Amino acid sequence: MYRVAIVEDEADQADALRRMMERSRWGERFEFVHAADAASLKELLSEGSRLDILMMDIELGSRGENGIELVKRCFPEGCGTQVIYVTGFIEYCTSVYRTEHVYFLTKPVSQSDLDDALDRAVVRLQAVGGRSIEVRFGGTTSLVRPDAIEYVESDKRKMRIHVGRDSLEMYGTLSSFSEQLPASFFSCHKSFLVNMDRIVELRANEVVLASGAVVPVSQKRRRLLREAFHAHLRSRL
């Protein structure tokens, strides 16, 4: 089953969208929840609810809440939730690219466009499969694809997981977290794990990543990292 959240302040429009989704070829595999505003969506997330697909209205009610900003705050890049924007305002068609999403639907939504959006979302969910990692902190659970992680840093018992321009925090150790990661991750320092797929430059004491972030490399692990990185590159040829 795929858990779908419909974030829409108009109850009748939320019901209509749910019925259309039930008519899609994936309808029997959807489990629906509804949030009328930012507060109710955050309440769902605070309960640790897993959300596979997010149907996000952009203008939410009289409070002036903005769905794009809500996605930026609550669904960081690489979290695994497939975001589909639904709005009556075509002028948002470029603003949505400030966030990771799979489709932009305009109201009134046609069944064919909705079916196309859902096909794309489900294909991406199937590609990720069971490889997403649960990150729990402060009562919130996020799903993160390992390939979206640039690096992980540790500060005593707390870890910070860097995903694109965002970061997530959780309690744990690098050694236990690394067991959930693919072979593309390397411990370049006692406090850092780096995704070798994201390295763009190797320096004497540090590596530069695709985002521009600079991660330190300990003296003991310089040679090992260089060897591992070159072997990793050869394996991709």
Automatic annotation (TrEMBL):
This is DNA-binding response regulator. SMART domains: LytTR, REC. The modification 4-aspartylphosphate is found at D57. It holds the Pfam family Response_reg. Residues 3-122 form the Response regulatory domain. Coiled coil: none annotated. PROSITE patterns: HTH_LYTTR (PS50930), RESPONSE_REGULATORY (PS50110). GO terms for molecular function: DNA binding; phosphorelay response regulator activity. Keywords: DNA-binding, Phosphoprotein. The lineage of its organism: Bacteria, Bacillati, Actinomycetota, Coriobacteriia, Eggerthellales. Residues 133-231 form the HTH LytTR-type domain.
